[in-house]
Amino acid sequence: MAVGEVVTRVAAGIALILAAVGGPGAASAAPGTDPLDLDALGARLANPKTQKATLEALAGRADPRVEPLVRALKDGALYPVKSGGFVLLADDGGVRTLRGEPSVDAKGQPVAIEPEQEAVGLDESSFGLVNRLLERFAVLSPRREERESAAVKLGNSRDVSAIPLLAAAAERERDPSVRAVLAEARAKLELLSPDAATRAQAVRYLAALRTEVALAQFRAMLAEEQDPAVKSAVREAIRDIESYVGLRNIVGYVFNGVSLGAVLLIMSLGLAVTFGLMGIINMAHGEMLMLGSYTAYVVQELFARRWAAQQDYYFFVALPLSFVVAALVGLVLETGAIRFLYGRPLETLILTWGIGMIFQQGARLVFGDQTSVNPPTWFRGGVEAMPGLILPWSRIFIVALAALALVVLQWILQRSYAGLRVRAVMQNRAMASCVGISTRWIDAMTFALGTGLAGVAGCALALIGTVDPEVGKTYIVDSFMVVVLGGVGKLLGTVVASFGIGISNKLLEPFIGGTAAAVYAKVAILLIVILFLQWRPTGLFRQRGRAAAESASA
Amino acid sequence: MSPDGRARPWGAEHAALALFGAVFVVGLPVANAAGLVSDYYLNLFGKYLALAILALGMDLLWGYAGILSLGQAIFFGIGAYSIGMCMMLEGSGKGVYGERVPDFMVWNQVYALPLFWRPFEHLPVAVAAAVLLPALGAVVIGFLTFRRRLRGTYFAILTQAIAFAVWLMINRNEMKLGGTNGLTDFKSILGFSLAAPGTQRALYTLTAALLVAAFLVSRALVRSKTGLVLQAIRDNERRLEFLGYSVASFKIFVFAVAAALAGLAGLLYAPQVGIITPSQIGVLPSLEIVIWVAFGGRGTLWGALLGAISINWLRSVLTATYPTLWPIILGGLFVSVVLLFPQGLVGVGARLGSVARSGRAATGVVAAPDAPERTA
Question: Assign residue A388 a region: left if phi > 0, alpha if psi is -120 to 50, beta otherwise?
Fold first, then answer.
């Protein structure tokens, strides 16, 4: 029986070595179906004369089953045993067979390695080869990220010998996203396959994925490809992918525009209401936004120092607090200065600009030129709306926040008693005053509400950018454009103008192209607004009645 | 009493103007030539007087016609860049690289002179462009806004946005105007070295004389019928419309005059200061002009002069000692001028004068000149 076993082993070993050295025909054989004798392989590896050739042959096969063996060889943990064959010394000190199972002898007792036994040595010149081999086996790693990055690497390696390994890895893979990456990598390698049918299939597979990564490879193929069927498939795939990428980019730009529009909306809502109500323009509105951003920063720092474990929850404090801080400052500003200039909008403009300058420089002196707020961890990542298009959570949150602010403001103005009085003052200040509404109090509260909203915008903005003293200036000109374009007194106008300006800005940027696209897009938007006002000087939607006539002459 | 000085006898104002001319047009240059006033101070005053011309235009526009433009610095910039380009071209070939184009173009890999730079090789063209281009720009903007009855805050916001857009664009190297560094390193004008004290003295004298001329023209304008219509526009635009005046034409006219004065100011400023950068164009510099006028006394030509000179002098002093506090001080000026003394230095002076004359508190001197009747 023992003799028979040895004979079969030797025979299998010879067969294996023949197969391993046999060249591409052997390499393309699917793994898992051929008999694999690890012990014989171990013997070849243990022999310094055949070690290198065997490793080279293995590199052409990349059978996942040999991984423990090769790793042990590298780590110096491969030991021959007396009974013939080899065992591995695992990290925990246990002894394993070459297949990774606990090694037991015929009596079921664990096999021990004799103390004087030396491990199989690895020739220095083969070290790089082993490393490359093991790198490939990273697609089988227990860690998801490692598997994914190894698959991407293999896909770009242009090494067709990795195809069987990728196929085997895909079979074992449980995680669907990693499996997709593995399949993609395999298809990319199959593009280089000598078999036209395989190539065509890979082209179709990649085209269906609509991934940009294959595009360059497709273009290169177009020049070299001989087979007409494959060539036309490639051409079609390029067309498909390009049109898809175009669509996806447009969706991406529109989403960026919507998120810019959302920031503009939160900021302009307050501006529009104060402008509609009092006919004044608050040039310090941008600095109110800055206050919100810095409130978020200060709260974050406070949490980092006191309650580091609950760091992420700082945002729940920062958001309402930024509203309160900005609203209080607005209240002080209105009652302390602006109310004395009632009816003189241009003086208010100069005054509020001066106040804005003081705030800006004050912030620079206190906080320095640039600080940044770390979004809570749950805002990291995003939703993959389309393959290759990820919408960040932080931006989605801003859009939701803008919608919420709009709904709340609309409710306050249209449904609440306070809103009723605000509207009354907006429509006819003198008459509202006559029927006992304290217009002064309404002015102050509305102004505070407006600046508070700017504070909220600032807190939200801190999620997607750095915080610096100039942050208000970046958005204030656009917000004024929104107010002018949207018209006075109608929230709908503000909404349409915000998203109109935001989206067209982001759509124009790639259309213009170049490094200065953002600048020229802004300039173009301004020209469009000015031309639009030629046609409708009072903006998109205007308030009817005498209030409108008065505010237009202000 | 209207605050434009009409109530004052012409004789007194004549005397004041003669004194001003004697001190600034004749006195300072002579003292400089005699070695009593340093070149540095003469140059500093040259800068203030150029900016006073800018303030005069702003006063005509805002003080008299009630139009708040937040884009005057653009017109100033056009003037300064025009003469700057001319001086750059005069010095080209003498730069570090010896190329036929200004050095900054070499840094940006531009070796052929852009077409729009060509006309500025000739000084007369540059001077004409410095004054006429701003006027033309103002007519275009005025046409697009005033005729559509975009006024008050709407106009202020639009001009602010235009200033912002121009500032954004001029900062770009692709505009071939030196990007954020602007135009600098001027060598000579009409062959006269700018480093020579004689050239600077001549430029100063020219500036002072042109300021006096601009003052006389402005004075004639505000005392003319047109000037009266402009003040009427400020006080009640709608009533004037009902009376059948073409309000838009008057506004476009005064806007163009103010822009031309701003261009002239830029023209005189650049050779004396030796640099023009985008930081002098844009929204904040435009608003600062408003503050000079408000500080000196809005709606009085003397106020514009006084405001421009005093605030710029203050800036020279304070930015040297407290550079980080200057924006706060300037912001504080914005606030205090508007809230505490809306009539500016001239108003304070007039009130003190009338207190001294009558021995009791003057009444009604400082009625707000511009409060529109909103409760109609």
Answer: left
